[in-house]
Amino acid sequence: MSEPPNTPTYRKNATAWRAYNRRRYELERAAAGDDPIPFVCECTSGACFAAMELTPRQFRAAHRGATWTAVLPEHVLLDDGSRVVVRHETHWVAKLVSIA
Ligand SMILES: [Zn+2]
């Protein structure tokens, strides 16, 4: 289980990383089948560029909402206005108010 990222100041651009993961999903989903694809954690921590594996089905479910992000467990920075939607063993889904 991963620890919450320690980020005193800098926040990464979660919207850009979400878009990056989306492109990766589009490229790899056909070949992946039901196998996990490596993505980058979409949390807002400027110190986190950790790999996160989701199957294509998990990726789609994690982005069902327009402001939903897929993050590693515990990677939710509440002071960014993030709210946990679902907690899975491998990843959490967080609603990120700042990209609404
Ligand atoms: Zn993270």
Percentage of residues in helical conformation:
25-40%
Into which percentage range does the β-strand content fall?
A: 15-25%
Major sheet characteristics: 3 strands, antiparallel
Distance between the ends: 29 Å
Shape: globular
Tell me the structural class. Answer: alpha+beta
Secondary structure: number of strands: 5
* Subunit arrangement of the protein: single chain
Bound molecules: zinc ion
Number of helices: 2
Spans of at least 5 consecutive residues whose pLDDT stays below 50 are none
Plain-language structure description:
The structure is a single chain. This protein has 100 residues and is of the alpha+beta class. It has helices spanning 14-32, 56-62, and strands at 37-40, 51-54, 68-71, 82-87, 92-96. The strands form two sheets. A three-stranded antiparallel sheet has the order 3-5-4, with no helix packed on it. β4 and β5 form a beta hairpin. The protein is globular, with a radius of gyration of 13 Å.
Q: What can be said about this structure in brief?
A:
By secondary structure, the chain is α+β, with helices and mostly antiparallel strands. It has helices at 14-32, 56-62; strands spanning 37-40, 51-54, 68-71, 82-87, 92-96.
What is this structure's SSE topology?
Layout (H helix, E strand, L loop, with lengths): L13 H19 L4 E4 L10 E4 L1 H7 L5 E4 L10 E6 L4 E5 L4
The structure holds zinc ion.
The site of zinc ion (ZN) has 9 residues, from loops.
